[in-house]
């Protein structure tokens, strides 16, 4: 929780803090917090070992799952814990990862220090003013593949001196949309008290940003801000929708159904698109799943992450499998929840065709009815397999993340010149390495053969 605000603070301070010293100290403090978080995770792992999603379940279950019940199955809780906190944590994680990648682009696009000419002019009381061009040489027209033509030249301008009022000639490199001639006017930054320091030509906005000490020009800052907020927000929203969106089971309705079952395995399977079933080709999607055995057959309980080890933790504990039977056009998955007899609840989704198959065999009951009684006093605790995910990070991922933080610190506090983009590329590679180190151990699951479709449980599931 502490690391996320510190991570978001780095590009925010970089883009909006014009004071060089305050900016560098603020970013250094944020990066120090992130390094401290990595160190705390490493110390915690050294003391307790690596955690997994199954470990979070072992800590959650209050009593052994095989406790017998004297008078039939336990009742369902009248209200289930919402899954929104877990969904928001997942969306925030995606937002922070996107922020880290785009943060390196923002750091590379600016400069931690003002260029030497601008720094000297600013220290002498620089101002932005339109001055007259007295001579032009080496004028050249440029015709880029995109955008409008522009002209560069070496020009001599007349800089008014504040004390005497006379004009002091200064040579500047100009970049203008129209060719310059003697008598033309250009906007420059110079020090009226010391015109001998020279001048810097440019547009008023970028010159004001340079004079104020901002690392980015206003146009670049606006573009990066829009890309950051829209891109990170969009990907975070996709993660929220991928984990079930706003469809969730918290209160029972007449459209809900429940059936008793046990978890017999986990793995991944393949879901055939509805377009392919109707004769058109479509891309199949892979589902991380738990296999739930009921009296009407085996069905798949779909999660939004890997399910390794979950079946072992669930053991043979009896449970309720509940889902929303109402179907919308084109919908293949419906919100579902597992409610264990020992008082836990796990949100996920269920394949609608399998739910309809259970209904055809009359194996389902309506929550609150005779077959699935509801007790208002009973409560269930939410099981979020992704809770505490930093404690599962491997050593390679943490080393790569630490290297990325060091490179970010160099970019934010040091003027590296042309090497800035190389340092930023190194930081991005470190971030990619951290992500790859975490996903490499489960990459074989993505290439495992899937012999199942949406009509039955997969052959790639691990069953007991």
Helical fraction equals 25-40%
Distance between the termini: 38 Å
Read across the widest sheet, the strand sequence of neighbours is 7-8-9-12-11-10
Tally of contiguous helical segments: 13
The total strand number stands at 15
Outline the low-pLDDT stretches. Answer: 63-68, 275-281, 441-464
Structural class: alpha+beta
Question: What would you note in describing this structure?
Answer:
The protein has 464 residues and is α+β, with helices and mostly antiparallel strands. Helix content is 39%, strand content 23%. A hairpin with a 6-residue loop joins strand 3 (150-160) and strand 4. The longest helix has 29 residues, at 20-48. The radius of gyration is 31 Å and the shape is elongated. Residues 63-68, 275-281 and 441-464 have low confidence and may be disordered.
Summarize the model shown.
With 464 residues, the protein is α+β, with helices and mostly antiparallel strands. It contains 13 helices and 15 strands. α4 runs antiparallel to α7 (218-242), α4 runs antiparallel to α12 (420-439) and α11 (395-413) packs antiparallel against α12.
Give short descriptive properties of this protein:
464 residues; 15 strands; disordered C terminus; 39% helix
Q: How is this fold's topology laid out?
A:
Elements: H1 3-16, H2 20-48, H3 53-60, E1 76-77, H4 84-109, H5 116-123, E2 127-142, E3 150-160, E4 167-176, E5 185-190, E6 199-201, H6 204-212, H7 218-242, E7 256-271, H8 274-277, E8 285-294, E9 297-303, H9 310-314, E10 319-324, E11 333-340, E12 344-351, H10 352-360, E13 374-375, E14 381-382, H11 395-413, H12 420-439, H13 443-447, E15 462-463
Parallel strand pairs: 1-13, 12-14
Antiparallel strand pairs: 2-3, 2-5, 3-4, 5-6, 7-8, 7-10, 7-15, 8-9, 9-12, 10-11, 11-12
Helix pairs in contact: 1-2, 1-4, 2-11, 4-7, 4-12, 11-12
């Amino acid at each position: 929780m502490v690391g996320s605000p510190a991570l978001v603070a780095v590009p925010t301070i970089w883009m909006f803090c014009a004071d060089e010293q305050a900016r560098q100290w603020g970013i250094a403090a944020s990066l120090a917090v992130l390094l401290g978080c990595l160190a705390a995770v490493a110390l915690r792992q050294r003391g307790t070992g690596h955690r997994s999603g199954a470990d979070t379940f072992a800590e959650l279950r209050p009593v052994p799952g095989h406790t017998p019940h004297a008078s039939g199955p336990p009742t369902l809780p009248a209200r289930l814990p919402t899954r929104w906190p877990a969904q928001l944590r997942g969306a925030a994680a995606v937002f922070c990862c996107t922020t880290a990648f785009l943060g390196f682009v923002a750091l590379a696009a600016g400069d931690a220090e003002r260029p030497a000419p601008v720094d000297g002019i600013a220290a002498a009381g620089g101002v932005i003013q339109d001055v007259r061009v007295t001579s032009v040489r080496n004028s050249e027209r440029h015709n880029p593949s995109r955008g409008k033509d522009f002209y560069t030249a070496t020009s001599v301008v007349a800089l008014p001196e504040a004390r005497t009022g006379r004009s002091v000639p200064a040579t500047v490199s100009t970049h203008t949309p129209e060719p310059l001639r003697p008598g033309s006017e250009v906007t420059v930054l110079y020090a009226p008290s010391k015109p001998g320091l020279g001048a810097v030509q440019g547009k008023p906005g970028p010159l004001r940003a340079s004079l104020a000490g901002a690392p980015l020009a206003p146009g670049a800052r606006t573009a990066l801000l829009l890309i950051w907020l829209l891109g990170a927000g969009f990907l975070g929203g996709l993660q929220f929708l991928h984990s079930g969106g706003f469809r969730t089971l918290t209160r029972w309705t007449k459209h809900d159904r429940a059936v008793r079952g046990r978890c017999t395995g986990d793995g991944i399977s393949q879901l055939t698109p509805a377009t392919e079933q109707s004769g058109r080709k479509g891309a199949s999607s892979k589902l991380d799943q738990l296999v739930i055995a009921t009296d009407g057959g085996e069905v798949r309980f779909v999660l939004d992450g890997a399910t390794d080890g979950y079946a072992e933790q669930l053991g043979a504990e009896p449970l309720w499998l509940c889902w929303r039977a109402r179907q919308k056009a084109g919908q293949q998955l419906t919100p579902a929840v597992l409610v264990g007899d020992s008082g836990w609840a796990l949100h996920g989704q269920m394949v609608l065709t399998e739910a309809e198959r259970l209904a055809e065999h009359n194996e389902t009951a309506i929550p609150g009815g005779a077959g699935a009684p509801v007790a208002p006093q009973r409560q269930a605790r939410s099981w979020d397999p992704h809770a505490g995910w930093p404690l599962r990070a491997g050593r390679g991922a943490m080393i790569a993340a630490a290297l990325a933080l060091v490179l970010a610190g160099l970019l934010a506090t040091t003027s590296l010149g042309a090497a800035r983009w190389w340092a930023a590329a190194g930081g991005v590679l470190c971030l990619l390495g951290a992500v790859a180190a975490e996903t490499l151990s489960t990459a074989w699951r993505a290439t495992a053969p899937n012999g199942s479709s949406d009509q039955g449980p997969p052959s790639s599931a691990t069953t007991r």
